[in-house]
Amino acid sequence: MDTNRVHGALPDPPSEVHGALPDPPSEGAEGNKEEKAFEIVFADLESVDLPLGSTLRSIYDDQPNAHKRFMEKLDARIRNHDREIEKMCNFHHQGFVDAITELLKVRADAEKLMGQVTDTNRRLQEAGKEVTAQTQEVIRCRMQQRNMTTTVEKLQLCLPVLEMYSKLREQLESKRYYAALKTMEQLENVYIPRVSKYRFCQIMAENLPRLREEIKEISMSDLKDFLESIRKHSDKVGETAMRQAQQHRTFNSAVTKQLNLGHYTKPVYSFNGRTHIHVPNGLLMNNDTGDEEEADEEVLTAQDLVDFSPVYRCLHIYTVLGDRETFENYYRKQRKKQARLVLQPHANMHETVEGYRRYFNQIVGFFVVEDHILHATTGLVTRAFTDELWNMALSKIIAVLRTHTSYCEDPDLVLELKNLIVIFADTVQGYGFPVNRLFDLLFEVRDQYNETLLKKWAVVFREIFESDNYSPIPVETEEEYKLVVSRFPFHDAEIEKQDFPKKLPMSQSVPQIYTQVKEFIYASLKFSESLHRSSTEIDDMLRKSTNLLLTRTLSSCLQNLIKKPHIGLTELVQIIINTTHLEQACKYLEEFITNITNVSPETVHTTRLYSLATFKDARHAAEGEIYTKLNQKIDEFIQLADYEWDMSESDGRASGYLMDLINFLRSTFQVFTHLPNNNNDHASMSGKVAQTACMSACKHLSTSLMQMLLDTELKQISMGAIQQFNLDVIQCELFASSEPVPGFQGDTLQLAFIDLRQLLDLFMVWDWSTYLADYGQPNSKYLRVNPATALALLEKMKDTSKKNNIFSQFRKNDRDKQKLIETVVKQLRSLVNSMSS
């Protein structure tokens, strides 16, 4: 071992190590122990596996000068190993020399042998060249044969794939997409996996998803075309379905009337005598029930008008592709959008019935198509989906009809709309859709229909009133009498006993009004047909609508007629007569309604006709208008008065305007003798009308005359004017006492002028002492004279006396009279002041 390497590998020990080692106890024992320790250290150092760190540390941790002694022992150890190596080399050196000598001898033989082998190899190669060439050819041929066999086998595997792919292309070109998808499925699952390692198969496999997407896009495009097609043809489909439903209703009505059989079964609907029911694979199935000619007529169905193959094909394609849910969602979404478009009303739809018919046709066509899809497919359209669409459509339809019918003012159009709604309801009900809300809507439409009828009949009533001459109906012959009685239920024994010609008390408008009320009942009844309501409900509807006609329309027309300026007193009297006869005829209207509905009037909750209040109000209005017009006429005469308030003495006769007024009142009250006065309770009021009118006229005349005297613009009045005024009042009193209207007791009518009479008597007699003395006494002669009234009139006479004072101041009587007037004025003022306080 190289001592320098070992020495170099060992670091110098620190000086503290030697100081730390203990002194050896004895030299002999210490030497043996030290030898054993170094032997262990050398064994450790010579061991390759043990780490040197701990061994070297043990050297330095030993006694002082351990490093030096270790190095000495290490040198001795190295010298021993060198001697052993030298001994070993010396021992094997001769054998090594002998081996080298033998090897040199063999070298020459080896070179000779090498030459012989090389020559033999050369000659062998030259001899085997032809064999090698033939062998290579055989190998090549066998490889080609094997490749050909392999190729044939692989081609036999590939040919079915190519044939299927060619078939797929042909199916795509011929638009047989469902078959193409089946072919793709076979290619993917059966054929392509057999030859999947070939590139062309990989290309095919990569193309198949793209072809599927193309098929989906093409089928979706066909579906969109289908949706557009059914949107265009839904009108025709709906028209056909509604026509069939209408003919079915007609057919059923005819069968019910002719056969009236309880076992008759109502078909789904009928068209030209042919009934139709639903079948799973089609929209309709025909059962011939008519004669041979009807059986030959073609019945159009939804399948005849719409090609459903695109939707079937698209459904199958998406089902095969595992994307059916996407297709169903898309189809339902698009149909919902189309439903909203179909439910949008056309512009000016409310103007003609054709607008409503087109609207209903489109809606029916939409739901007929959906019903067909529901029955022809599985799951594409569910009953829940169609019910949802129908509920949405029903709400929209009701809102649209409610809005548009409010614009309609033609009752004929409303009636046609009602018939359309009934046919529409029957049609969709035949497909299983609930229509109760539609029939509820018809009650609202009925109210609108009644409103339009009321407006129409208001015009009819106004025309009748405007064309009436308001005079009794003249009857010349028996035929004319029967004609009038046939139109109006008039029965009067006294008039029937009279000879022809004769007059009926009512005017021509009464039978016309009665006839028009019956026409109104007929028109109202038309709306109640086909509403699936009981006779009691129809009877109630007719009575309520007739009540509206009487209480609103006819009453309003009568009120407006009475208020018209050109209607005079004679016309008003005739109106009272007419309303009385119309009221009496209302019981015949109730019988007329009963005969139509076959509902007894004694039935509980049967509505009565409110004729009493209607015609009673009209009579009261006419009476009030009579009173008003009489007073207006009196005012017109009063305005003609032209008194000379400063005249010295009267003319000795009544004023001309007043005589004309009295003559007018006499002739007017003679008209009241034409008022009906038979045993009827309502007609017995004729005397009261005449009496009230006469009393009202006299009171108004008395009030007007009193206001004329007390007019603030009249500043002066003479005694002669008082005397002239007294003559006019006397004529009024004579008129009142002449009993212009029978039925007044005693001097009741004269009491209307009592205020004027007592006032004029006070001034004519100049009885101021009695007036002032008896004032406030219940038996006073001038009880009706108010001090303020007497004072106002006396001051007007006082002013007249002052005017003439410069001529009469030298006459003693005039001076005394003037003093008396001043004294009376003071006393009257005192009375007025005491009353006000």
Automatic annotation (TrEMBL):
Q: Which InterPro entries match?
A: EXOC6/Sec15 (IPR007225), EXOC6/Sec15_C (IPR046361), EXOC6/Sec15_C_dom1 (IPR042045), EXOC6_Sec15_N (IPR048359), EXOC6PINT-1/Sec15/Tip20_C_dom2 (IPR042044)
Chain spans, region Disordered: 1-33
Q: Please provide, in alphabetical order, the Gene Ontology terms of the cellular component aspect for this entry.
A: exocyst; plasma membrane
Any one of the GO BP annotations: intracellular protein transport
Domain Exocyst complex subunit EXOC6/Sec15 C-terminal per the UniProt entry, residue ranges = 438-796
Role noted for this protein: Component of the exocyst complex involved in the docking of exocytic vesicles with fusion sites on the plasma membrane.
The protein here is known as Exocyst complex component
Residue ranges constituting the Exocyst complex component EXOC6/Sec15 N-terminal domain according to the UniProt record = 73-242
User: What family is this?
Assistant: Belongs to the SEC15 family.
Q: Which domain of life is it from?
A: Eukaryota
What keywords sit in the KW lines?
Answer: Exocytosis, Transport
Asked if the keyword Lipid metabolism belongs to this entry, the reply reads no
